[in-house]
Design goal:
alpha/beta, FAD/NAD(P)-binding domain, four-stranded parallel sheet, about 20% strand
Length: about 350
């Protein structure tokens, strides 16, 4: 299983496609083992968690929670004046913090001698990579770590909605928000927008929220959310979205009256980010929802191509992607066979 550092017939020993948590860890550790490593990222280095997931979302949660804290303070004797909230201030400060953290990822790659290419890369053969600029690169080993992307349902007017990719960059704070979905992303953003003053309606195709969580937790969360004023429409499928002439959206759902909204947020799951990657040129057949099938050592059906992180659709968590990247690097370039324990 161990490859180690190869001869010089390839430009790089390892080429990583994707600069998220798993890809950066694999690139850094492989370089530390002596490999010649390049990494291509078409957007921003850091991945979903840092750029448009955990980090900015938690900062919005912290910011939104002040609304409740300020109200509670009055009940404890504090003379709190009426406060105004400025969405653009929070939005811009969150992005400033994201950029700061992103810089650390770039510095880490640079300090380990990893060649970072800020453009899209696709697979064009078992050892071949093609960049958006047209340049072709060869590598002994290719690691795909492109993560996952929001899954938007295919229905009339779906282009009028947004996902968690765009929600951090809104120009204005909407007054009426419809959130489609009932997982943790949906519930977190429902809470954020509600605390910031929006009227929020969460639409779910079943009657259960956070279905993978313990029922005592989900029942309590539902009680708290409803008590705060968040509305829930259960057993409701999205049917169509129409853009109103005077502004806003009309969201048609089954079994309920249409909903009027200024913003529709799709939080309806995520799928492996493999569209257009060219994996078929290496004989790789994708699994359900576009996921890349891999073995216990993260190797695909092509011996020279591996995959780690959300793109394999096994456990979509940042710590898991980091551990997989570490195990890959240690196994392939560190001369030490490692497997990830998912239990």
């Amino acid at each position: 299983m161990t490859h180690g550092v190869s001869d010089s017939k390839y430009e790089f020993d390892l080429f990583v496609i994707g600069g998220g948590s798993g890809g950066v860890r694999a690139a850094r550790v492989s370089a530390a083992h002596g490999a010649r490593v390049a990494l291509a990222e078409e957007y921003r280095v850091g991945g979903t968690c840092v750029i448009r997931g955990c980090v900015p979302k938690k900062l919005l949660v912290y910011g939104a929670h002040f609304a409740e804290d300020l109200r509670d303070a009055r009940r404890f004797g504090w003379n709190v004046p009426d406060c105004q909230f400025h969405w653009k201030t929070l939005r811009d400060n969150v992005q400033q913090e994201v950029s700061r953290i992103e810089g650390f990822y770039g510095q880490t790659l640079e300090s380990h001698g990893v060649t970072t290419l800020r453009e899209r890369a696709t697979v064009s053969g078992p050892h071949d990579i093609t960049l958006a600029s047209g340049r072709t690169i060869t590598a002994q080993t290719i690691l795909v770590a492109t993560g996952a992307t929001p899954d938007v349902p295919d229905l009339p007017g779906c282009e009028h909605g947004i996902t968690s990719n765009e929600v951090f960059h809104l120009d204005e704070l909407p007054k009426r928000v419809v959130v489609a979905g009932a997982g943790y992303i949906a519930n977190e953003f429902a809470g954020i927008f509600h605390q910031l003053g929006a009227h929020v309606t969460l639409v779910n195709r079943t009657d259960v929220i956070l279905r993978q969580y313990d029922s005592q937790i989900t029942d309590r969360l539902l009680q708290i959310s409803m008590a705060k004023g968040i509305e829930f429409k259960f057993n409701a499928d999205l049917e169509r979205i129409d853009k109103r002439e005077g502004g806003g959206l009309r969201v048609q759902i089954s079994g309920h009256d249409p909903l009027e909204a200024d913003l529709l947020l799709f939080a309806t799951g995520r799928r492996a980010n493999t569209h257009g990657l060219g994996l078929e040129t290496a004989g790789i057949v994708l699994g359900p929802r576009g996921a890349i099938p891999v073995d216990d050592h993260h190797r695909t059906t092509c011996d020279s191509i591996y995959a780690v992180g959300d793109v394999t659709d096994r456990v979509q968590l940042t710590p898991v992607a980091i551990r997989e990247g570490q195990a890959f690097a240690d196994t392939v370039f560190g001369k030490r066979e490692c497997k990830v324990d998912y239990e």
